[in-house]
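Input (structure):
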């Protein structure tokens, strides 16, 4: 095939557009690798903490069990899964594992569960730090699992979401569905407590504080949860735009015209 007279062959200048594209792809691959490593770490920490706590509950060495009046094993396990902390950690685990397998994981159900996981674990960390931590005097494995479930996992989940997303997985339309789980948990907790006189958290003990105080406290936690959910929805697209802008600037630097 012949060139038309007067035309010059197309030449690619090293370090220009092709280099910028390559640099961008390498940066994207590196980011994906870091994200997957973070999610793997998160899943391992959550799984280990949950299994360790189950072992403590079964052996009766857990803070969940009153040594003087240790209930049957079935009751102990039911109480274990009744904690908002445990359910939040489970949600973190079941929404993180799919990301380990496929970073593009997405569905409406997963989005709702992920939103619940992030908001729930954030509230877990805050409530524990300011309301429950001063009441606890733990040692050994009870102390270790407590810190994993209430401090390490919240930090891993929230920081991981801020750093790696995945982005564009939240929307205002998901906030109301995301409130179903915490509302159901509170209803179950109060109904179960009315029957058994056992409450997972001191500030929900109707026998001690009465319904007006407990409901007012619950309202305060619900408002905090709504604020966290709204913050996640508000931040998600803005973090995405910020990352896209940074990526574009990096591409411009690597690919001067």
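Output (sequence):
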């Amino acid at each position: 095939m012949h060139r038309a007279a007067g035309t010059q062959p197309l030449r690619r200048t090293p370090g220009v557009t092709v280099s910028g594209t390559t640099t961008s792809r390498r940066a994207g691959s590196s980011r994906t690798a870091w994200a997957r490593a973070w999610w793997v770490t998160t899943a391992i920490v959550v799984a280990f903490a949950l299994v360790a706590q189950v072992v403590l509950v079964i052996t009766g060495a857990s803070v969940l069990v009153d040594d003087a009046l240790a209930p049957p094993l079935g009751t102990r396990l039911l109480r274990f899964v009744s904690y908002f902390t445990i359910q939040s950690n489970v949600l973190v685990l079941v929404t993180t594992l799919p990301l380990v397998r496929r970073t593009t994981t997405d569905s409406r159900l997963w989005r709702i569960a992920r939103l619940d996981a992030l908001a729930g674990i954030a509230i877990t960390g805050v409530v524990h730090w300011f309301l429950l931590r001063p009441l606890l005097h733990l040692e050994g494995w009870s102390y270790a699992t407590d810190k994993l479930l209430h401090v390490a996992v919240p930090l891993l989940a929230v920081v991981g979401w801020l750093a790696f997303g995945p982005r564009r997985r939240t929307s205002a339309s998901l906030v109301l569905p995301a409130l179903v789980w915490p509302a159901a948990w509170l209803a179950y907790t109060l109904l179960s407590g009315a029957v058994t006189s056992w409450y997972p958290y001191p500030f929900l003990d109707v026998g001690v504080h009465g319904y007006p105080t407990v409901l007012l406290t619950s309202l305060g936690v619900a408002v905090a949860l709504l604020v966290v959910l709204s913050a996640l929805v508000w931040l998600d697209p803005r973090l995405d735009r910020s990352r896209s802008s940074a990526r574009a600037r990096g591409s411009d630097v690597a690919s001067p015209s």
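Notes: The chain has a mean pLDDT of 85. The chain has one domain: 17-254.
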